[in-house]
Design brief:
The chain contains eleven helices and eight strands. The chain is of the alpha/beta class. β1, α7 and β2 form a beta-alpha-beta unit.
Length: 337
């Protein structure tokens, strides 16, 4: 299995490098052209190549045998190609796909919370390049679920990549090219059963926002705080939000306003699961999983709020114990369907 993945990556990267050299473009733009080639789409930039080079790139893509891979193998190939491309172009961290070690926990909670073989409405509030939404989508498809999948992204390049990922995995997503905080008037993204997101970290560039409890009276507000509020706005009553957030979420200088928001009657703060430090080269970039739920329907405050740290990925016995404890907590708090 891994040989097939490795061979596919090598061949696609060979075609990508030809495109970089011949067209003098960044690696991310070359990867987009490669994605289009894999879906047999024509592009004006590709047509600028000499005939021999076009033929060579097409051969690389064909030799990758991408079409013959299983869906999960395809997703892994696309993820690893994106990781290498982000490194090559030295792109900002927001372009980095959500690691599988994190995505599997988001998928686990999605599978526990959503009824099996049912129809769901799922939104990735910060789509990025689409790897997290693809991970959840494929996991739910595998058990026979159906759904309407939505993704919001304001970066031109990232939403183009995400569109390519969806096409290559034969996934039907409704993509919205917009600032997430401007989607309150988007009726199609209301009443979601599940909202996910690998939230960007930093300050929101605008200060003229209104109506957010976490908004700072002076200066700029952390964008991930605003997006946590935005998550609740897009959920149906009783819907669940599973968000990748900074591990120091409650230690920042703006944490007081966030904790105050968590005490409002419109949502429940259910869980905060920190990931192993070894997942992150930069300790300042450590992440955690925040689980929140919109009030209403049969939702209730979890007792107790789950505050935990996931074991190391390669510690199988510890992970099994953690999964069992997590499952017991979900059942006790009626978060399993």
């Amino acid at each position: 299995m891994y040989d097939e993945i490795e061979d596919a990556i090598k061949q696609i990267q060979a075609g990508q490098e030809r495109l970089i050299e011949q067209l003098d473009i960044p690696a991310i733009d070359a990867l987009i052209l490669a994605f289009e080639g894999l879906t047999h789409q024509n592009d004006e930039a590709f047509d600028q190549l000499e005939q021999a080079e076009r033929k060579a790139v097409r051969k690389n893509l064909k030799d990758s045998q991408f079409a013959t891979l299983k869906l999960e193998q395809k997703r892994q190939v696309l993820q690893l190609l994106l990781v290498a491309t982000v490194k090559q172009d030295q792109l900002q961290g927001n372009y980095q796909p959500t690691p599988d070690a994190i995505g599997m926990w988001v998928s686990f909670l999605a599978e526990k919370f959503l009824p099996s073989q049912s129809h769901h409405r799922i939104l990735d509030l910060t789509l990025g390049t689409g790897n997290l939404l693809a991970t959840v989508n494929l996991a739910l498809n595998q058990r026979g679920d159906q759904g309407d999948y939505f993704g919001v992204e304001n970066d031109d390049t990232m939403i183009t990549v995400a569109s390519g990922v969806a096409a290559l995995l034969d996934l039907d997503w409704h993509l919205i090219h917009q600032d997430t905080l401007d989607t309150d008037d988007q009726q199609e993204t209301k009443d979601m059963d599940l909202v996910i997101g690998d939230l960007p970290v930093g300050y929101y560039p605008k200060t003229d926002i209104v109506g957010y409890a976490t908004q700072q009276e002076e200066g700029m507000t952390y964008v991930h705080h605003l997006l946590i509020e935005e998550t609740i706005r897009h959920l149906r009553p009783g819907g669940l939000g599973v968000l990748v957030v900074p591990a120091n979420l409650f230690e920042s200088d703006q944490a007081a306003s966030l904790l105050k928001y968590f005490q409002t009657d419109e949502m429940y703060f259910q869980a905060f699961i920190q990931f192993s430090d070894n997942l992150f080269l930069d300790k300042k970039a450590r992440k955690a999983l925040l689980v929140i739920q919109k009030a209403g329907d049969d939702a209730k405050q979890a007792e107790p709020v789950l505050l935990a740290k996931a074991p190391e990925v390669n510690h199988s016995d510890e992970n099994l114990n953690f999964v069992n404890e997590l499952n017991d907590w979900l059942i006790d708090n009626e978060l399993v369907h």
